[in-house]
Design a protein that fits this description.
The chain is α+β, with helices and mostly antiparallel strands and 131 residues long. Helix content is 43%, strand content 18%. It is built from 2 helices and 4 strands, in the order H-H-E-E-E-E.
Amino acid sequence: MTEQDRRGFTLIELLIVIVVIGILASIAIPKLSVTRDRAYRNSMISDLKNLANAQEIYHLTNYSYTTSLTNLGTTSSQGVTISVNEANGTGWAATATHAGVSTGQCGIFYGDATAANGDPATTAGVVSCNF
């Protein structure tokens, strides 16, 4: 068998390629995880801001806030669960979680609502997240 008749890769060459692919994957996977978590957080923040707008529109019509997402006519992003934990005539508080995030949530409160009901929010009208 001559050198020209031998075609293909040696076992060493294949192992080197596999090792290089493994190194590249070990670098890329954590970066993708961080990007995914950031996207989930941004979905929750966006949904809470949309909720805030809907609450203000509802308040203009009814002179009070509501805990009913149906009354507000809002829909949340895929995987996001919003809970309006408190609502009265002068304030409201809500939290959002995402099915893709095992720990942490985002929250907001407005007016004289209890900040704890919008945990982790600490400033009225500002969405905060704890992850």
